[in-house]
Structures are given as C-alpha cells and as structure tokens.
C-alpha cells in the first residue's frame, strides 16, 4: 500500500516547491509548516486566482512545466502542495 499520498510530512521535492511558494508569494509562513495535504486555496493557505497565476509562472520557469487555467484538471493540480508536486514530477521534461 502506498502511504505517500496520506503522509503529512513533506518530501524533499515538496519542500523545494514550498520554499519557492513562500518566496514568490511572500507568504508569512515557514516552508516546512505547509501541510502537503492541506488545500492551497481558500481555507488552506488562502491563495487566490492571482496567486495561482504567479505559482504557474514560477513552476514554468523553474521546472519547464506549463500550467494552464483552462486545463480541466487545474483544480486537482492545485488542490494541495502534494498534488502540485506530483503533477510537476510527472510532467517535468527529462534532463
């Protein structure tokens, strides 16, 4: 059984993305305090649509993965730090 999806501790890649989120969005929280399973928007970190654009730009620049607001899976991709990190890992260009 894969417990990774229910593990509340951050993976190294999730920590890396969390550090970038805190930096780009100027969040007043330490990267390690971001629960990888908590929602990124509304009741979680409280991000909004402008933040989503900034996150998408950061992901594109840092990892070469394009996130589009018209992607039918965007709600799932941005659901949590874990979901975002998983999507980037899967879609990241090799090399």
UniProtKB/TrEMBL annotation:
Protein name (database record): Acyl carrier protein
InterPro entries, A to Z: ACP-like_sf (IPR036736), PP-bd_ACP (IPR009081)
Organism: Acetobacter garciniae
Domain Carrier: 8-92
Coiled-coil parts of chain: none
NCBIfam families per the UniProt record, alphabetical: PRK09184.1
Superkingdom of origin organism: Bacteria
């Amino acid at each position: 059984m894969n417990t990774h999806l229910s593990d509340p501790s951050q993976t190294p890649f999730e920590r890396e993305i969390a550090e970038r989120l805190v930096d780009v969005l100027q969040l007043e929280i330490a990267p390690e305090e971001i629960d990888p399973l908590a929602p990124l928007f509304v009741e979680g970190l409280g991000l909004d649509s402008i933040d989503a654009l900034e996150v998408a730009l950061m992901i594109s620049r840092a990892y070469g993965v394009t996130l589009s607001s018209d992607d039918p899976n965007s709600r799932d991709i941005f659901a949590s730090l874990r979901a975002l990190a998983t999507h980037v890992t899967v879609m990241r260009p090799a090399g």
